[in-house]
Design brief:
Number of helices: 8
Largest sheet: 5 strands, antiparallel
Shape: globular
Structural class: alpha+beta
Oligomer: single chain
Number of strands: 10
Order of helices and strands: HHEEEEHHEEHEEHEHEH
Helix content: 25-40%
Strand order of the largest sheet: 6-7-8-5-9
């Protein structure tokens, strides 16, 4: 319901991913830490807590990066970015260094219409679902969709298009500690839900999320309580709310709180993701490559964009692929 025109051809890929979902033991942060260790064990260096202000380039070729704190790093071979494309080209490269036609493509790059509003919980015990009286497997499900029918989804979409957080909630609830107890202290549990919503609010714009997010989380929680027996103040130890604005602040590639880092519409999938006219993962700046969720196939912890980009980079640089047999 919330997909763009032309994404029917993309649906088989999405369904195949749903059939093979994986979870990092101890939380998703451990996947990032494992990648960092792998880089460092092979002689690389990972910097955190810093932001690239400019991508340095000369004569149409990327030569390095300058951090916002003024430090510069020279690129011996290439610069590879997984930052959302508008920021890469309009801010880190600069319009004055790009052809008008390409600038038009960058400006047309857009996020999905539906954003993610997330609320996290720490529990004494996992939620017990009223539906488990008929099917005990519900209490053992890591993911539960709390939505009565497609009419609710249609009403949600109508609200989102108007800049209104859906007044009739219906969302995906996830209980990670049912299958990974290491994500909570012994005997305790965690859970969260994803509610589709909007980024720009009709009342006050995106910045107004700071004022209304807790109230809207209350609305969603009231809905969740209708389907459980123990979503109570005694069971809830803590709550943390992330609006689409919060998500954007934390991860610059999830612009406008977009979990896909760019809409998967007909003109933004496959060889058109993120732009057309260039080989996938390449850019009009020589030796500047793109990877990450804004490239094919899309967002999600699949490693596919990075793997595909790595192949494109080594082929362009004439480097042997050490991850393949000769």
């Amino acid at each position: 319901l919330f997909m763009g025109m032309g994404t029917g051809a993309f649906l088989p890929i999405m369904l195949s991913e749903m059939g093979s979902l994986r979870m990092a033991k101890g939380g998703s942060i451990n996947l990032a830490r494992a990648m960092q260790r792998a880089i460092e064990e092979h002689g690389g260096t990972v910097l955190s807590g810093c932001h690239v202000g400019r991508i340095l380039h000369e004569n149409g070729r990327a030569t390095g990066v300058e951090l916002q704190d003024g430090r510069t790093f020279e690129a011996r071979q290439a610069v590879i970015s997984n930052v959302e494309p508008k920021q890469v080209f309009l801010e880190m490269i600069g319009r004055e260094h790009l052809e008008p036609g390409f600038i038009g493509q960058v400006e047309r790059w857009r996020s999905t219409k539906t954003k993610i509003f997330t609320t996290h919980f720490a529990f004494n015990e996992p939620l017990h679902w009223k539906a488990a009286e008929r099917n005990p497997d519900v209490d053992r499900s890591m993911m539960v969709f709390v939505c009565e029918n497609t009419a609710v989804l249609r009403r949600q979409e109508a609200d989102i298009m108007e800049g209104i957080p859906p007044r009739d909630p219906g969302f995906l609830y996830c209980a990670p500690t049912l299958y990974d107890p290491s994500q909570a202290p012994p005997g305790k549990h965690t859970g969260f839900f994803w509610q589709y919503s909007c980024y720009d609010l009709a009342d006050g714009g995106a910045q107004n999320w700071d004022a209304v997010k807790e109230v809207y989380a209350d609305t969603c929680c009231d809905h969740l309580a209708n389907y459980t027996t123990n979503f109570t103040s005694e069971n809830i130890l803590a709550r943390h709310v992330d609006s689409p604005l919060d998500i954007e602040r934390r991860n610059i590639s999830m612009f406008e709180g977009d979990m896909q880092s760019g809409a998967c519409d007909q003109d933004q999938v496959g060889i058109f993701r993120p732009f057309h006219g260039y080989p996938p993962y390449h850019t009009p700046i020589e030796r500047l490559f793109l990877c990450g969720p804004s490239t094919h196939p899309r967002g999600g912890v699949s490693a596919a964009p990075g793997f595909n980009a790595a192949n494109a980079v080594v082929e362009a640089l004439g480097v042997q692929k050490w991850w393949q047999r000769a």
